[in-house]
Structures are given as C-alpha cells and as structure tokens.
Protein 1
Amino acid sequence: MTRYGTAHRPVLTVVPDSAAEQGPVGLSALTQAPMPADVRGAIVTPVHGRLMATWMPLRGPSRVPQGRVLLSWTCTDEGRTDVTAQLGLAGTQTLLAVWPGLRGEWSGVVHPTVAEVTELHAALRLATAVLDRLAE
C-alpha cells in the first residue's frame, strides 16, 4: 500500500519476448531493433557505467517516473534512427534531447546526456531534502 491507500503497481515491465530476463537489460541490446508496438519507450538508468533499460508499456501509467529518462526511437528509411529523450519531473515530464539520424548501435551517443541528467537530478533531490530538513 502507498501512502495514498492504493496498491503499488509496477510502472515498468521486463523486455517483451524475453522470458528469461528478470529485470533491466543493457540498452545496447535494444538499440538496433525497432521498439515493440506495445511500448512507449525504454526507461533507462545508469548502473555501474552502463545504461540499463526497461520497457515502459503503453497500457501502464503515462507519466515518466521522477528523475528517470524515457528514450523512444523510430527507424527511418535511410537505415538511421531518430531518438528522443524525456525527463520525468515532480509535476510533469519534459523534452530532454533529440538525436536525429543516428546510425548503428547508438547507446554510446545518448549515454553522457542520460547519465549526467540523472545524476544531476539525484543531487538536486538530495539538496532539496537536506534544505527541507534544515528548515524544519
């Protein structure tokens, strides 16, 4: 139960068509294929220097979790990929970045932005919590 009295439902699911997977997978394993039709994109999290991804289903909540980055991509006719990143904030989500026309395995291109933004968001949340505690 959450503090609002409703049961906690997971926002994220494991990668479709991969029953052996019990959690996030490396983003690089997903980048060369189109996104499945039943997902909005992949929530990515930096873990030990790698970007780990978990699909965010269409049927789930539409909001990107606070401090997380949702990557979505579409393949173009030229064999390139257009990638969009959205950042979840406390009251909304916002466009973080767009990378048009990427080729091949593109996780290394988006990695610096995703890692820096998620770390900055975590630092700002910590600073806000400390200031709130000091103000009490």
Protein 2
Amino acid sequence: MRIQEMHYLSPDLVKQIEEVVDEYAFGAGDLTPDTLLDRAIDLLPIEKQHTDTIRKRVEGLHYLSELLWNRALETGKLNRQQIVVKARLRPLSYYHYLTGSREPSNILLTRDDLLNDPPTGLVKLRDDILGLARVLPELQSESTATS
C-alpha cells in the first residue's frame, strides 16, 4: 500500500487528512496527538455490514502515518532509525502477537501489508500515529531554533 495507490480513499478524503496533519504540524489549532488521531478516526468511520470501511480506515491511517513520517524526516534532525527509537515504535511482529492474530505471520511483513490483517494494522497504526505525533513538535521546534 503506497501513498500513490489509494484504493479506498477518495481524493476529497485524502485532502481532509492532509489538512488535519498540516493543522497539527503548523500548530494552527489546539491539536494534541490524541485529538489528531480522534479527528482522523472521525473522518474514517466504520459502518456495520460494510467491510470496505475497515479497509478505508486502515488506508487512511496508513496515509496519515506516512505524512507524519515525511514531516519528521523533513526536519533533517534525525534519521529513520533514530525516529523509531525516539517515538518508541515497535515492529509488526509485536502487534501480530499482541492482537492474537490468527493470520499467518508471513502475510504481514511490511507496513505495505497492513490491509492483509486489518485488526493488527489498526493497532499498529494507532501506536505509530501517537508516537510520531508526540515526536514531531519536538523535532520541528529544534529545526526552527537552529534556523
């Protein structure tokens, strides 16, 4: 699942997610990491009897986390591995075990495979978004302080 390959998100929804991230990144509103996640979840409701809404939420949260990753990397203060440590991100195998997934572990090898096991993907993405959202303001304040 790459950013360019949106199967479940409409262009309008993609734009709304980008606006939420921009608002958070630029500090325009009073968004905290938790409210950022809540607003994203509000944009991506799950409806009973519509399995595509689950995939839509996974794809939307994946896109949101990728936007946060890009913002964090754009600061140039830390590389990807340092961000993983600072945000306390865990590997997918941890979430596969944590959720008690019955899916084979080999179908969930990378973040691009999150649609193969949506329940595990949702738990992983939630933690990733909260971790990255906590680290991003700190990285951005460091980059503006040195500029």
Protein 3
Amino acid sequence: MKVLLIGRYNDTKSLTGPERFAKGMLNNLSEKTNVHFADYFYNGKEYSIFQKLFGYSIINKNITRLGLFRLFFFILKFKPDVIHILNYERNAVIACFASKFFKTKLIYTSHGLIRYEDRLYNNPSFSLKLKNKFSEKYILKSSDCIVFVSEFLEQLTLKEYKFLNKKFYIIPPGVDKNFYGREVSISHSDILEIVTFEYHPSRLKGISTLISVLNENDFNDFLSVLSDSKNIIVLNHKSIILGKNDYSSYREFLKNKDVIVCLSEYDTFSLFTAEAMCSGLIPIVSEHTGIRDYITNVENGFIINNFDKSELKSVLQKISTDKTLKNKMSSYAMNIYSELNWDSVINRYFKIYNSKEL
C-alpha cells in the first residue's frame, strides 16, 4: 500500500499539536507501509512565489517539499492508494483536485474548524477569510471520509456544514510512549503543582478564572503557566510564567506536576492535556474541549461548567485535601494511554485505509 501524507512537517523542537500528529503519523506509518510526506513552502517571508508554485526540495528519502504545481504532478506520478490530509492547509486543495484523475482514497483528519476560528478568533483579512472558507469547504466535500479528533469537533462541524454526507470517524491524536508514567518529586509532595497553558486566545478567559480562584483562596499550591502572551498577569500568588516549551523538554517539565487545567471556550482536543494525563496529571477541563470524551468526573479528572469559579474552587480543594483521591485519580488518568498510544491510533487508521466501503 502506498500512502501520501499531506501536511506541515516541522523539524524544530517547538511543535503545535497538529504538527506533532503529522510527525507521529509519518514515523509510525513508515514502520508498516510505503509512505511519503508532501510538505509545502509555507513561510511567505522565507520562500518566493516561484518556490510556492514550482519549488521542489528533498528533505529526506520520504519527505519532499513541493510547490503547488509540483505537488499536482508528484501525486499523478506517485499514484498513492491513499491520500491522507493530516490537517487543514490550503495547499491540500491541490491534492483533492489531483485525486480525481485516478482511483485513490482521500482521507481528511480535521483538528479544527477554520471557518469558525476565523469568525471568532483569528481576525484574518477579508481575502484570506474567503480563501480559507473555500479551501475548507472543498476539502470537506472532496474527501471520501473525514476523521475528527473529537466528538465535540464533529458536532461543531456538522452545525457549520449541514450539507456533509460522508463517512465520519472519531480518532484522537496519538501520544508518544515517553509521556506514559508517573514520577513524583518528594520535595514537592505537599504542594499542589498546577499547570495551565495558553497558545490560543480561546484559553485566556479560563486562565484568568484559574488565577482569580487561586488568588482568592488559600491553597498550598504553585502555578505554572505556559504562554508566550504578555496579557497574562498573576498577582499575589506563587507562580511562574514560562515561554513556550520545546517538545522535548515538556515531558521533563511534567514529571512532578499534579494537575493540568484547560478551561477553554473552544478546544477541539488538547493534546497537551492528553499528554499530561498520560504523565499522571489530573485534568480539570471545560465542557468546550474535545478531551472531555476521555474524562469521567471524579474518576480520572473533572469536567466543569466553563469559568464557574465556585466549581473550580471546590474541585481544587478536593484534590488538595484528599491525597488518597489525588493518587487514585492520577493513576486512572494515566490509563488514557491505552486508547491514545500510537499503536492503537495507527491500527484504527489502517482499518480506514483498507476499508472496502470507501
């Protein structure tokens, strides 16, 4: 079987969730089948218009960076059995168009809803908004099946695109094996180590709510905020704001932490939260995050009403004062790895690749 992955290949240490997913798919599929990754000249400041249209650069034996025209002809020559669009990128429209010239399965993994994000958060130019709207609609309509990273995203997409009549699947992103396992630092055993993060404007309100609760109450805790934003202000509280960690150091950072808080207005999955759970952190998430599908209240985490300060306070007190509950929930949180490990994720994708119904 020949599989062509379409996505953004990031070889730096600082990776977004979809970029980690793309890299994980390539690495794990390479062990099982003939796979090639088609990257693009994404950086507008670094690459010329000529490169974006006709560029060709070999990154390694199974990764090639291609301009739009070169991508089209590469697909016709490679003739993959499966074209898998790993995340929304506008250049994927070319792959959708090329797939019509021969028999192949076209699969799209959706990590977000760009039309919704542009309307509420991204504030793009009018022309970019139109490009995104057309591209996303064309990719969704052209795909033989759509894989959503969560039920939350599936429901949101079907509200925005009521015309969709496709095969739908829900498969979470994979979590690397090195995140699985718990290491507790004895020196911090009496302090509730809390982590939260902000790499999207939809989380700012949730961070403000958390900080407000901690400032107003006397918890024996320490807060770490992962963020590059200058809009986060922490007053009267034991805390630190850290710049965006590179991926390799994130696992080390989680070693002695207890709680991961993801209170968001819009979060289709939250791979950071999933990785933290596999490391034994107890999740506290809002109703508007896709990771809620893997959380059972007061068993392996908490799902709370978005930005409800009294409920958040009650949950933090429960974890802080009941060490037996904390240890039990930490252990149960790690069990999420049985569903999110890469072997499980890849096997589910292979069932789609081999499906006779598509």
